[in-house]
Amino acid sequence: MLKLTPTIGMEVHVELATASKMFCGCPAEHFAVKPNTHTCPVCLGLPGALPVPNKKAVDWTMMIGLALGSTVNKTSKFDRKHYFYPDLPKGFQISQYDEPLCRGGQLALDSGKIINLTRVHLEEDTGKLIHQTVGGKRVSLVDFNRSGVPLVEIVTEPDIASGAEAKEFLKKLTAILRTLKVSDCDMEKGSMRLEANVSMGESLAYKVEVKNLNSFRFVEQAIDYELSRQEKLLKAGKTPRQETRGYDPKTRSTFVQRYKETAEDYRYFPEPDIPPMVFSDKDIAAIRAKLPRLPEAKAKDLVDRFNLPPKLASLLVAKASRLTYFKNSVKTAQTLKVSPEKLANLIINHKISLDKPAAEQLKTLTQKQTVDLGIIDQVIKDNPDVVAKIKAGKSSAVAFLVGQVMRLTRGQADAVAARKLLLKRLQV
Ligand SMILES: [Zn+2]
What we know:
alpha+beta, ten-stranded mixed sheet, three-stranded antiparallel sheet, 13 helices, binds zinc ion, EC 6.3.5.-, ligase, transferase
């Protein structure tokens, strides 16, 4: 019997929100900026220009690693990764190969399952290609404003087993990065880019990379689609091809972008213009001391103090505005007999607006809970045949009466409460 185990790893690229670029003094901001205005000889890759690492970007990468439980390497260096593409003016990207800033680490899902991390490293972003029609001709333009922006890559072990797990992992990771205030993690602006490596089976003779996933929902859908596509092939006795695929949200399916018969050879070698970095225990401790309170600790606090289910607690913590609102209105809610769990659910499900005070909104919502007994009695009186059916044992007919209550209250009544009251009144 063929044993098919989903084996998924994620690669997450995050642009750091530093003021300047990774190896030069140009502003790192590049979104909606006039093309090629934030450039200099270093980020344009002109001959003779020398890169100088951005200390803040190095510190922030270590901070990300420490927040994720990684080990900061006491010696680390930059390497040149060679490939040719018009958005890479030097013909190589300064990245990190065998001595990344951080190794290992982990992130726990709400179920308690641990997703292990392989590494967290720092590199520079590439320029951006813009395809346009100019004077009736299709042309490709290059904007180097993004060239050299600090980019952190976070790589997981293949510990993820489904699209839902990948989505939860990404949400938790984003919450941590936002708490650290190192990136806005905005996928629309491209400051967070996601890639999933998906394979199945025991031998793992192949790996499919799914790229350009620009929302967590698409990651989930693309992974689930890939798993079922690969399962079909494997069950038919075929091995899926080693390839890079894209995702089309319209058809909810992945498609081939290019085949990868062999691993690419980037001819990595140490960047000769930047000396290796050495960190002491004191340096690392100083960065650790700067770590703010992390989402996991905040969520645990909510679970302990308000008895919230862990999943609900992490959803609240994921957005600062939600958490603040919850904390500010939990007392008001309790005076209105709305439990912390109920309040948290109302916030998560957008049932109350975070822009308005809680008291009024909760009053309206709790009023909805009480159903006028007069209406219940009237519905019972108006529908003797349905009542007879219910009394004869056909309890599903109560749904019709609930519908009548909803109609008479113009949808204002709470359907669950109405059902309970009807059954009570009919003594069934
Ligand atoms: Zn520059």
